[in-house]
TrEMBL record:
SUPFAM superfamilies: MoaD/ThiS. This is MoaD family protein. It comes from Archangium gephyra. The lineage of its organism: Bacteria, Pseudomonadati, Myxococcota, Myxococcia, Myxococcales. Pfam families: ThiS. It comes from the Bacteria.
Amino acid sequence: MATIRIPTTMRSLTGNKGEVRVAGATVGEVLNNLEKAHPGMGARVFDDKGAVRRYVNVFLNDEDIRFLQELSTPVAEGDRITLIPAIAGG
């Protein structure tokens, strides 16, 4: 199981939990299982084609999955996934 760190803006979907534990062999499986456990999370993370939204950064431990194998990146027991939505401003 991996621990997923949930940003404050998405915690209403996880019962205000800052971290949840979810099973899966890849980052994609973990995120899909996150949606099953906490409906609504998938719409916040994935676009209509099933890719991670442009404005959501996903890190496995301290590595951006875009520089790994994206959603196919393997996840080991005890890994940490962090979701970071981009903040716009000016």
